[in-house]
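Ticket 4471: requesting a sanity check on a complex prediction with S-adenosyl-L-homocysteine. Repro inputs:
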Amino acid sequence: MSAALAGQGLWVLLVVGWYVIRYPFERRARKTRIAHSGRDLSERIRMAVSFTGLGILPGLFVASGLPRLGTYEPSALQTGAGALVAALALYLFRRTHKALGRMWSVSLDIREKHKLVTTGIYERLRHPMYTAFFAMALAQALLVPSAIAGPAGLVGFGLLFAFRIGPEERMMEERFGEDYRAYKARTARILPGLF
Ligand code: SAH
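Returned structure tokens:
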């Protein structure tokens, strides 16, 4: 099997794994009441842009080989590295969901009786799920052998991240006040000790 084909198969497995991890939380989220929602128009646009880069463009490429422009034959080393990053992304994704539990949301929501999680994977990082998303996007760039559909996840999720983190932290600060400010002061966003 060519590395190109293996990479695309692994990307499909990554998406399936992603969904299997998320599904129980999505089900539970439907039953947990929302006290405040930050899903305004900008948030909807951010989600659509991110979904285009992480889902639609690579999905189209894997299903149909389109767009043909920018298609290349990757090395086995690149595909192997992609598999490794994908496994790490899934592991981190699962840990963040388990830590957030009923506080999880696909968007920006404060739930009824929302508690601030500051332990476990959330002890040193305040956005570890976004670290997992960046790892997933990096895995996509390595696994999907297209100079367009491959990096599209990094661009799409990068935009969501750049424009969501401000509103998300403001929302958390409004809800949790001094507790969130102190938490923010002692944590990094997505890379321990760095950023
Ligand atoms: N930005 C976080 C969480 C993403 S999920 C991360 O990357 O890990 C987004 C939802 O999680 C939002 O609705 C927000 O209310 C909630 N959330 C974010 N950080 C939280 C925390 N430390 N404790 C509890 N809920 C949190």
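Notes from triage: The mean pLDDT is 95. Leaving this open until the requester confirms.
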